Amino acid sequence: MPDLLFELFSEEIPARMQAKAADDLRRMVTDRLVAEGLVYEGAKAFATPRRLALTVHGIPPRQADLKDERKGPRVGGPEAAIAGFLKATGLASLDEAQIQRDPKKGDFYVALIEKPGRATSDVLAEILPVIIRTFPWPKSMRWGARSARSGALSWVRPLHAITATFGLETEEPDVVKFAVDGIESGQTTFGHRFMAPSAISVRRFEDYEAKLLEAKVVLDPERRKDTILTDAMQLAFAQGFELVEDQALLDEVAGLVEWPVVLMGSFDKEFLSIPGEVIRATIRNNQKCFVVRDPKTEKLANKFILTANIEASDGGKAITAGNERVIRARLSDANFFYNTDLKTRLEDRLPKFEQIVFHEKLGTQGERIKRIEELAAEIAPLVGADVEKTKRASHLAKADLLTDVVGEFPELQGLMGKYYALAQGEDASVAAASEEHYKPQGPNDRVPTDPVSVAVALADKVDTLVGFWAIDEKPTGSKDPYALRRAGLGVIRLLNDNGRQISLTKIFDAHANRIYEALGRKGVSVGVRSVPWAGKQVQKLSLDLLSFFADRLKVQLREQGARHDLVDAVFALEGQDDLLMVVRRVEALGQFLDTDDGKNLLAGAKRASNILSIEEKRDKRAFEGAPNPALYSLAEEKALADAIDLAKVEASVAVMNEDFTSAMGAIAKLRPAVDAFFDKVKVNDDDPKVRENRLKLLNEIRAATRAVADFSKIQD
After folding, report:
1. Is the C or the N end of the chain the one with fewer CB within 10 Å?
2. Do 594 and 668 form a contact (C-beta atoms < 8 A)?
3. Do the domains spanning 348-561 and 585-713 agree at the CATH topology level?
4. What pLDDT score was predicted for residue 524?
5. Average of per-residue pLDDT values in the chain
């Protein structure tokens, strides 16, 4: 089966766009092939700084012939319908149509349309120019004399050549002939810009990849990454150092070179007095270089590793020297910023926050910091943190946002706060909270364990959530501009990973009142009419926010293999706002339902709930209240009532002791009595009083199981 080789050769393609562009090229070409009935065996796309390339294997040499039978109007039908039928099918007259006999509906005209398949090369010549012109670059340009013309090609950088060949591996391929903006397709590409700039004639992918390699171009970005990483690690090891790996930087650097050459440079040792993270950020951001460390001390060495795009005649000395000059200048700047920052105490920076708006409705950063301080002080005793240290930590936590180093390297926020806090003699826990209160920022991020950090981190995230809920700026669909889902997951992990029990409703209520009062003083309309603030408004916010946490918890537990319906079953119980207890209940419930007792009791409980729902709807009332023992006429009724009384007591005691496994065990004892009841007892007895009493007994089953979960929410 023939293969396609397709390359678009241009000026420099930004590294950040390459991976998506390669994927877009593969998707667009293969989608169009399939739409044209040309099913292929495999496809792979590649990107370098100067080219996008695609190979598609096993494409049929031509489209299959199509035969279509199209039914038309009845014989003798209206002339307009017949004319429309002839036009739609391309028939010259009804003589070219056939007549289909139908004894019931009458005779119909039928057109038999045969469409011969086209050669694949012709199809490619039609679709490839369209793909080039409609390629979804985030940013593109027009260039040269042609740019003034209507319909001029817009591309990420000037496009110089198009390679497009199609054919069998054993034969000379054909060039897929077309032109875009005056650039004609062919089988010519170019090698490395400096080391092998001459034109190269290529035939198919294997030939193309091999000739590019000879011309100092490594086509596959994964191979370039492997080369850079391996050579960098070996070069560092040879000098007695260890590479500080950086996957994001590796991805970017691999997109900057076609022929990676790894070199090592150095900088003055005096710069090692700067925090290592500042050195790394400076070298990484300005020169796209890796840093190395001493494996014995784990501290950075005064060396860096760069990736050149050329095998220089001097062994890379000039390239290395040039990078050293730039890095020396940038580290001098960083050193100046760092030492300048140390001259101003963190608390002395805070007044500037009064002029910096956090959100037009939620006030300034200064107002937000005060809210976080109050909330953190309330949370501190709940997580075992020292209140005074927590107040101090939350007071200083945001101060480094106004430092020169963080202004230059925003990714170091929090971390620099820790360094500056330690430098001015703050307690270690207070300093650590500056860095850790932003955590965790993702599923793989570390969760703080220091109680002061936990308190400040919770306060920071809860203030964000309650604040944006108060002004009705909640996440919708895929939109979450304030990262509120991430904040919610952060709260969940902070509580669960640290084993902390907290009533979220109490925290939400107190902080919502605080925020509503501030909004009211500013004259911001939030639907609350008077002071003191309407309890219903606060209650609604808390319930809505708790529902949001239930959804976030479902996401997290589902990723860990738990069932989302069990989370619903636990959250359905009144007052379930302690996330740690919810998780423990869900774990115990999941284990219980994996047993035969659990499965059978679930079936019985759901049967009882379903019967009650039907009868309550029919009678338009609930069957609540204790059943009358005097109306028990069967032993199974009495046995079930006794089992329920015992299970309620045992389960309640176990739940009070937070022993949910024992609570499940207590409820499991209901199973024999429930099974026997449904086997021997007619619930809808002819005697209305007996019927009502038995329905109340079913309600007791429902009430007993609700000691651990709402079984009606659990899927079979």
Report:
1. C
2. no
3. no
4. 66
5. 92
> Per CATH, which fold does 585-713 belong to?
Isoleucyl-tRNA Synthetase; Domain 1 (1.10.730)
Residue 529: pLDDT above 60?
A: no
Of the candidates 90, 32, 88, which has an alpha carbon nearest to the alpha carbon of residue 63?
A: 32
* Gap between the Cα atoms of 339 and 594, Å rounded: 61
User: From residue 114, how far is each of 83, 167, 340, 388, 424 by CA, in Å?
Assistant: 20, 27, 81, 86, 85
Q: How far is 349 from 354, CA to CA, in rounded Å? A: 10
Residue with tokens 């500080």: 244
pLDDT at 25: 98
- Please tell me the distance from the alpha carbon of residue 28 to that of residue 679, in angstroms, as a whole number: 63
For 167-199, what is each residue's pLDDT tens digit?
Answer: 987 788 999 999 999 999 999 999 999 999 999
Between CA 266 and CA 261 the distance in angstroms is: 17
Instruction: Check residue 530 and give its pLDDT.
Output: 43
Asked if residues 705 and 573 have their Cβ atoms less than 8 Å apart, the reply is no
Tokens of 314: 């001097």
Residues 6 or more apart whose Cβ sits within 8 Å of residue 198: 190, 191, 215
Digit-coded pLDDT (tens) for 475-499: 988 899 999 999 999 999 999 999 9
To 5 degrees, how large is the angle CA 496–CA 712–CA 596?
A: 80
- Residues 265 and 318: their CA atoms lie apart, in Å, by 11
What's the pTM value of the predicted model, to 2 decimals?
Answer: 0.82
Contact in structure between 489 and 556 (CB atoms under 8 Å): yes
Task: Give the fold, CATH level 3, of 348-561.
Answer: Hypothetical protein af1432 (1.10.3210)
Domain edges within the chain: 3-61+120-214, 66-115, 221-342, 348-561, 585-713
Q: What is the mean pLDDT of residues 82-104?
A: 82
CATH hierarchy code of domain 3-61+120-214: 3.30.70
- 341 residue type, one letter: D
Which amino acid is present at 31? Answer: D
Q: How far is CA 519 from CA 252, 363, 434, 541, 564, in A?
A: 45, 9, 28, 15, 36
**Average pLDDT of span 336-343:** 97
Smallest CA-to-CA distance from 645 within 589, 596, 697, 603 is with 697
The pLDDT assigned to 525 comes to 59
β-pair partners for 573: none
